Every structure is written in C-alpha cells, then in structure tokens.
Amino acid sequence: MKIHVLTLFPEIPRAFFENSIMAKAVERGLIDCTLINIRDFAFDRHKSCDDSTYGGGAGMLMLPEPLSAALEAAGVVPKKTDADAAPGIPRRKKRVVFPTPSGKPFSQRYAYELSREEELVFVCGRYEGIDQRIIDLYVDDEISIGDYVASSGELAAAVIIDAVYRLIPGVISSESLEEESFSDGLLEYPQYTRPEIFRGVKVPEVLLSGHHEKIRQWRLRKRVEKTLRVRPDLVEESLKNGVYREETVALIEEMKNGFN
Ligand code: SAM
Q1: Would the CB of 10 count as within 6 Å of ligand 1?
Q2: How far apart are the C-alpha atoms of 56 and 162, rounded to whole Å?
Q3: pLDDT, tens only, 154-202
Q4: Of all protein residues, whose CA lies closest to atom 7 belonging to ligand 1?
Q5: Alpha-carbon distance 68 to 48, whole Å?
Q6: What predicted TM-score, i.e. pTM, was given to this entire model?
Q7: For a 10 Å CB count at each end of the chain, is N or C smaller?
C-alpha cells in the first residue's frame, strides 16, 4: 500500500513512521510512505497556508490553493475530472481521507475496509480545518477518530494509519489479529506474563493448566463479561447483526440473566 500524508508539520507524522513497526513494514516493501509539506505549495512570498473565514467567525482556515497543488502533486485528480474521464481511462485508485471531528466514526471495520486500498492520501487539517471546496472536489472519506476536538489532523491521521497498516497481510501475524478487541464483536480477554505472582496477585490458575479447551472457554467468558460491562452497545449491535457464534450468544444470555 502507498500512503501519502499532506501536512503543514511533517515532523509529527515522521516521528511516528520512523519509530513504529511501520518502519519495518516500509523496509520490507509492504508499505510506501510519503510526507508532503503543504507549505512547499504556498503561492505567495510569505508561504501563507491559512486565512480568515468568509462570513466571519473565530479562527483561520487552510487555503484551498496550496492544498489542491499538494494533492495534485500526490497524483490526486479532482473527483469531477475523474467522473468525466473518457471511457478507457482508468479511474483513480487513490482514496483521499480527511480526518475531521465532523466525519464518520472510525472503527475496526472501517480500518479493514481502508486496508484493502492500493493507495491512501491523508489531508491533515489545522486551525479551523480546510476550505469546503477541497472536501467537495477531492475528499472521499471524512473520518472522525472520536467525539472530541483535537488541535491537529496529524495525530488523527496517525491513529487511522496505525490501525490500518497492521491489517495489511504480512505486516503482523494473522494469529495476532484473530482474537483482538472488535475482531468478532467482543473486546479482548485479560492477558498475563511473568512473574506468576506479582504483588501477591496470582495469574489465574486455568492459564497455567495447559488445558487448551478450558483456556479457550475461560477467555471467551472473560471477553463476553467485559464487553457486556464496558460496551453494552457493541453487544446489542453484534446480536442484531448476527455476528456472534451460538456459544457466545448462550454466554451473553446466561450473564444477562445473572445481572438481572
Ligand atoms: N473546526 C473544526 C470543528 O469544529 O469540527 C475543528 C478543527 S480542529 C481544531 C483542527 C483539525 O484537527 C481538524 O481539521 C482535523 O483534521 C483534526 N481533528 C481534530 N479533532 C479530530 C477528530 N475527532 N477526528 C479527526 N480529526 C480531528
């Protein structure tokens, strides 16, 4: 997968890319990552990239011209041109993501969807965000990483990229992904490492038993217990969509009755 990040502060995503397992994935040729400094595409001698908003209001907005020039340098064509392309001209393969609090909520399912793309382009907002015409002309996905307002799109883009690239086949073992939180509508089970006793607290006996079936059942029970307690909304949604196996549904029923 090719990832382009358009930013006014390349040092922020660079620090992340160079200090994670992402660096290894880049080394192994699984991912190719380019940072594009939007300021390189500013058109005036002050290298301006923001201005006040039409209609008034507090704060500045990122200017459309440097952004569109940076997007086009990343090989993104405006959607209209794409839609109008003559038959035979390949449709664009790049998916343009703008992280914004007013976007669709990000999720593990969304991360899987993005991990199947050939090329992703991230536009990092600053200040009050970006001119709407950039969104209308170039952006495919407006994505929110949560119901709060952070000050930079760089961190939001890094969160999305971090969740996406590890799902690309070969980056980490598929076994590691199998029982992770959200993989099947459940949160993860508790995990322990050495020592066997820490500050008087012992690792649950079943995990030391070597009995694989009992360990599996214990882990499933813990996952159901925690999901019901912390994310009842996820349980309801997964039940509605038929995500759970029979064994999981039976455990949910049993625990719900126990709670009542
Ligand atoms: N004026 C915007 C609003 O009210 O929605 C907030 C702008 S925020 C201060 C600056 C940038 O940070 C945004 O353009 C976006 O790129 C990023 N950002 C902040 N919070 C975010 C969130 N929850 N999800 C995704 N991106 C976010």
Answers
A1: no
A2: 36
A3: 999 999 999 999 999 999 988 888 878 898 999 999 999 999 999 999 9
A4: 128
A5: 14
A6: 0.93
A7: C
